[in-house]
Design goal:
The complex is a heterodimer of chains A (314) and B (253). With 314 residues, chain A is mostly helical. Chain A has one domain (2-310): Orthogonal Bundle (ABC transporter involved in vitamin B12 uptake, BtuC). Chain A has helices spanning 2-22, 29-61, 73-94, 98-122, 128-152, 155-165, 174-201, 204-210, 215-237, 242-255, 260-285, 292-310. Chain A is globular, with a radius of gyration of 19 Å. The two termini of chain A are 31 Å apart. Chain B has one domain (2-252): P-loop containing nucleotide triphosphate hydrolases (Rossmann fold). Chain B has a 6-stranded mixed β-sheet, sandwiched between helices. In chain B, strands 2-1-4-5 form a 4-stranded antiparallel β-sheet, with helices on one face. In chain B, helix 7 links the parallel strand 7 (156-160) and strand 8 (190-194). Chain B starts with a strand and ends with a strand. The chains are: A mainly alpha (314), B alpha/beta (253). At the A-B interface, helix 7 and helix 8 of A face helix 2 of B. Chain B: It holds the Pfam family ABC_tran.
Chain lengths: 314, 253
């Protein structure tokens, strides 16, 4: 039953992939296909990473309304970009080689989040609330810093930065993908190994401990995997906050089960599907040039409001 | 047998349990009683090995429970906390199935499924097996959680206030089952239960530990610990233990 539902999601994704690649294809075929292929792969990778990461984050945070973005990933990304633009200048920033920039971004994001997780968790691993609050406050701080630095920028540099602050799936360096794809596959495989233990983590820290799961270690390892996934997605495309929420909520609604061995792949598939199908509709059917992420964030934000409002009081 | 050996527990630098020295018999139903804030829940968590003692230790059989590996602990004692997490989309049989986790660690075999079925039957949950936990009434949900602790098949079951918010009928139902599970036999469970309802404690407990302000006031067979004078002193209010149709009852006088 569950397998059928997963298979259906795979089919849907394949259909979206086929449409994305083949719709309105003209000569030169090879060139256009390879162009579309890299774009497709980056869309799918970002969607799948964010989807899988959000399901796992919601479990360790014991909250269905949170995304890993809450601990300040997007603010850190923007701060990083702002610092780069400020120090290198607009032209220097635009001239940065893509691969080293990607690696530096990914490294900074993983290092920062692991530092945050490690620091907060050492003082009592049961304290997810403290982690989240610390993340929110640090996020505001980083945003404030970035905002301050943006005041000093000249208008053209600011425009370059503005472009980088929204998720874009335009031209992606194939070399970036060659790093990101194996990383994603590896992390996803590890996540699937953790899946049964994550099921138990749904019972909360005491519940999981009572059943013999080393909860503190599980949370730390899971947060590590999550930060790699989110860092890869953010470094590839830019901040995507609500996409994960959308994917995780839909995965729950489609699978109607609690087991992570279904939820993680389902959420990854749905995340990829949203971005691939969304980009197809946006770019090919509507012929729009604007960024898809704005639409995804809008839909995700709406869903967030719906979830908050319809939540039964407990 | 569970031995408390000079057990001291601190939480946030505050001493919550001080120098507890007691034993709890391997079979039978043991009640932990005492006023609010006496440290009953803390003691129960310490017996499950979830709170490392500041001093002393808890010996479950011949294992120092706080020093044991989590996996080993889960084979010795099943703990039901006061307000367990309610997981959306989780069905009753899923929940009871979690009780088997320490045995299969994510890969249930037919034997585990049989034992889940047996636990569902034992606690009259067959008809609710497919219902989701968040759709159940308080009484049904509580029964499901007790069944999960039962399915864990540990020698000890540690239950924190399993009767809160239950109708008399369901409360009695659960106590009856726990009582019979704790009778001596090859599959006997040692049941340790935090009870606020003194009537239930008087009616079902074989052994009683009474606590107050983090200290053990007394421990022993029910009839010795639950006397009118001791209970009145313990709770700082006038209580009497009377007999009604052959059963002890506790009344405020």
């Amino acid at each position: 039953m569950m397998r059928w539902r997963l298979a259906l999601l795979v089919l849907l994704l394949l259909a979206a992939v086929a449409l994305f690649l083949l719709w309105g294809l003209r000569a030169p075929y090879g060139f256009i296909l390879s162009l579309r292929g890299t774009k497709l792969l980056s869309l799918a990778l970002v969607g799948a990473s964010v989807g899988a990461a959000t399901v796992m984050f919601q479990t360790v945070a014991a909250n269905r309304l949170l995304t890993p973005g809450i601990v300040g990933f997007d603010s850190l990304f923007i701060l990083l970009q702002t610092t780069l633009v400020l120090t290198l200048g607009g032209t220097g920033y635009a001239g940065l080689a893509a691969v080293p920039k990607f690696l530096i971004e990914a490294f900074c994001l993983v290092a920062a989040s692991m530092a945050l997780f490690g620091w907060v968790l050492r003082r009592g691993a049961d304290d997810m609330m403290r982690l989240i609050l610390t993340g929110v406050i640090l996020g505001v701080l980083m945003r404030g810093l970035a905002g301050f630095m943006q005041r000093i920028l000249d208008p053209s540099e600011f425009a370059i930065l503005q472009q980088a602050s929204f998720a874009t799936f335009g031209a992606v360096e194939p070399t970036k993908l060659a790093i990101a794809a194996p990383l994603f596959v590896g992390v996803l495989a590890l996540s699937m190994r953790l899946a049964p233990a994550l099921d138990v983590a749904l019972l909360g820290r005491t519940g999981a401990l009572g059943l013999g799961v080393d909860h503190d270690r599980l949370v730390l390892v899971t947060l590590g995997l999550i930060s790699v996934l989110v860092a890869v997605a953010t470094a590839l495309a830019g901040p995507v906050t609500f996409l994960g929420l959308l994917a995780a909520a839909l995965a729950g609604a489609v699978m109607r089960r609690h087991e992570h061995r279904y939820l993680i792949p389902a959420s990854a598939l749905i995340g990829a599907l949203i971005l691939v199908a969304g980009q197809f509709v946006y770019e090919r059917l509507l012929g729009l040039q604007s960024t898809l992420s704005v639409a995804v964030e809008f839909a995700g934000g709406l869903l967030f409001l719906v979830l908050v409002l319809k939540r039964r009081p407990t | 047998m569970i031995h408390l050996e000079d057990l001291c527990i601190e939480r946030d630098g505050r001493s919550v349990l001080r120098g507890l020295q007691a034993r709890i018999p391997r079979t039978g139903l043991t009640a932990l009683i005492g006023p609010n804030g006496a440290g009953k829940s803390t003691l129960l968590h310490a017996m499950a090995g979830l709170l490392p003692p500041a001093q002393g230790r808890v010996m479950v059989g011949d294992t120092d429970i706080a020093a044991a590996r989590p996996q080993h602990r889960a084979h010795l004692a099943a703990l039901l906390t006061q307000s367990p997490m309610i997981v959306p989309r989780l069905t009753v049989s899923d929940l009871v199935g979690f009780g088997r986790w320490p045995h299969h660690r994510g890969r249930p075999d037919p034997h585990d499924r049989d034992l889940v079925q047996a636990a569902l039957t034992e606690f009259d949950l067959q008809e609710l097996a497919g219902r989701s936990i968040d759709s159940l009434s308080g009484g049904q949900r509580q029964r499901a959680y007790v069944a999960m602790a039962y399915a864990q098949a540990t020698p000890w079951m540690l239950l924190d206030e399993p009767l809160s918010a239950l109708d008399p009928r369901y409360a009695r139902d659960i106590m009856d089952r726990l009582w019979s599970l704790s009778r001596p036999g090859p599959d006997a469970r040692g049941v340790v239960i935090v009870l606020h309802d003194l009537g239930m404690a008087a009616r079902y407990a074989d052994w009683v530990l009474s606590l107050r302000d983090g200290l053990l006031v007394s421990s022993g067979p029910r009839a010795e610990v639950m006397t009118s004078r001791d209970l009145s002193d313990l709770f700082d209010t006038s209580l009497a233990v009377e007999e009604c149709r052959g059963h002890p009852v506790v009344v405020a006088v």
